[in-house]
Fold this sequence. Notes:
Layout: H1 7-13, H2 33-48, E1 52-55, E2 61-65, E3 80-86, H3 99-114, E4 123-128, H4 141-147, H5 152-157, H6 166-172, H7 184-188, E5 190-198, H8 203-207, E6 211-217, E7 219-228, E8 232-233, H9 245-261, E9 267-276, E10 282-283, E11 286-295, H10 298-319, E12 322-331, E13 334-335, H11 338-347, E14 353-356, H12 361-365, E15 371-376, H13 392-411
Parallel strand pairs: 3-4, 3-5, 5-15, 6-14
Antiparallel strand pairs: 1-2, 2-4, 6-13, 6-15, 7-11, 7-12, 8-10, 9-11
The site of one manganese (II) ion has 6 residues, from loops.
Amino acid sequence: MSTHADANALLAEIEGIGVDEKRGGYSRPVFSAAELELRVWFSAHATERGLAVEKDGNGILWAWWDVPGASADADGRHGAIVTGSHLDSVPGGGNFDGPLGVASALAAVDLLRDRGVQPARPLAVAVFPEEEGSRFGIACLGSRLLAGAVDPERVRALPDETGRSFADVSSDAGFDPSLIGADPGRLAGIAAFVELHVEQGRGLIDLGQPVALAGAIIAHGRWHVRIEGRGDHAGATRMADRQDPVVVAAETIRRLREHTLAVDDARGTVGRVLVTPGGTNVIASAVDLWMDVRHRSEEAVQRIVSDVTAATQCAAEDEGCVVTVTEQSFSPTISFDPALRDRMQEVLTDAPVLDTGAGHDAGILADVIPTGMLFVRNPTGASHTPVETAGPEDVTAGVEALADVLEDLLTR
Ligand code: HGY
Ligand code: MN
Ligand code: MN
Ligand code: MN
């Protein structure tokens, strides 16, 4: 296996896993065969590097580089530094969003050893489940569970599209659902978490730099809109007799665009629409759609959502439909720990600081432990699409930067 200290080679190894022939790119939902195969790939590389791979109840993998002579338990691992990211993807996503952070962490371990670094504290490489929320609907589900930021009972019962619960699916993947929930003891033992991630935007392209530090993540959330009408025949039903939820959904989508454009630099997206039953010659009985709304101001996000909800309710009344809007997850604007960011800046003096519109596990953990992020330039500026990428030199620069930051945190 080896691919020693080479994140590009590590990423190349997984290029064939979870390829989505229909959509293009990769579809690696959490605990799917593809994501489980990636977990096996990660565990094999971690084990080959002498890291002790463990599972917790939340679906997170922890690969430990323990300090020689220290016990492999909470005591011996107190003050740990953690790095890592996620391996699950959006439908039809790229091979870098998540895996770049995991591969770079493995390569950084190699680099630290090549440098002869003797860590004074333990290091763990973590792989978080369901960062994209593509299977169970809540983004950063594993890090939210760890941080106590989501109700474990709600999560245990969360159904995926087939109706299978998180508890059942995670149990099939070898996790113990009875252990799902906050892990304050584990968090108390972590001195800092640093996630490396491919940049999902154009900041580093415009700056002409390979690596950046993260400043803040803008507020973002997702809302499920369900519109119920009356199914009927497309030809036999007069227009005056219709209660067509698709017409209401169209108004929702139009108003989301309108209200988002009315707020400077807000982002509003409907990327998923399910029409039931979905026949060309059938007036739908129901539509489910999900809104993703983001802005630096949490109030602006909430205002856009409430304005669009009000407009949707008006449209539903006109059409004789019933609408329900349910918040699935919401993350306020977070700024990463200034002391940790300053310390990372002392190590990476040339790295600019960039804010991001993308959510990350680091954004959730920033609430409970000192957390920082590194971004690696993505020459396409695009993400959540097969074209997402990072150039080999920039990937190597990212590993060097991560190793520099980890060396500082592990030895000082
Ligand atoms: O949706 C996001 O912002 C992240 O990529 N999960
Ligand atoms: Mn990601
Ligand atoms: Mn993503
Ligand atoms: Mn992330």
